[in-house]
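User: Can you write out an input/output pair for a complex, sequences first and structure second?

Assistant: Here is one pair. Inputs:
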Amino acid sequence: MPGLPPLIEEDVQLLNSVLDELLQKSESAAALVIDKGGPIINQRGAVDQFDTTTIAALAAGSFCATQAIAERLGETSFTSVYQQGERFSLLFSNIDENALLIVIFKAQLSAGAVKYYAAGAVPQIAAQLQRAQQRAPGESLDLVSENVLDVSAIFSKRRQN
Amino acid sequence: MAIINQATKELQVKIVYYGPGKGGKTTNLEQVHGNVQNVREKGKLVSLATSSDRTLFFDFLPLEAMAIKGFKTKFQLYTVPGQVIYNTTRQLVLRGVDGLVFVADSQYEKMAENVESFQNLEDNLKTLKLNFAEIPYVLQYNKRDLPNAAPVEYLDYLLNNREVQVPSFPAVASRCEGVFESLNMITRLLLNKFINDGARKAA
């Protein structure tokens, strides 16, 4: 399972523009590209309105669990999950082996339309992630000059009475 | 796998607490959530548990540490359900793991479960095509306060017997002893790994 390569400005700009277009055309509230391990790769829209960090972690678990169920039923192609709500609905679409697109939209909007526009966005996102992978498979974070000894206690405990 | 975003200067890492059922994994996260200070942001602790408070899917706690070299560093802490039957779920939670805290139960009668859970971890990493040798981890020997706790040397003999010994910590998670020590050490190992990987690739 290859990890996600470090993303650079070009990747973020492309992801931003694809997600912005998706949000505009589908009239959705927020769109997130997440890693199937749980963390957010990129997000656009009214993200302050939602606890997107937790939504991403739960969505990754939920999608992968549903995918595992589908596999046990002999399904070979499993690309999306639609969660119907009363206020907001969600669409999870598979991007590639490692990534997932989540669209949060008002429940009264047509899920079919959101699905249609998401289907257009997915290959563009997949292609950019692929380009990033090919560009810099070995690149890592430049923390070399950082003195790690200084971060030996990055989390400190509150004093107990 | 860690998410590194050079454009937004953000680093996200995933740490999973693994170990046998009722060993104290959830308690570790609760104690971190309740006692951590000096973080930029502390998220809610989300627990997907059964009605009897046993972890069903996972617990999740997002923390954002102070910036490291200008990078916003976000840590996502997860636990797995310890019960043997939930193995598929454990595999899902392990996906994309960067570092591990193995929480062992120090009681003598739990040794077989500790060893079985550690073996299960190795098997699951293999299934996910992850190389255990490349994933930093620490051992936490929990429940040291109980009268039937086995000596630390015995736990080391059973669980810390791989080619390279890893840091181990005695703990009483319910009193928050050993909890931050384990978390800070896995954080340190992870950051060291990024630095070493970066240096190797830059060479």
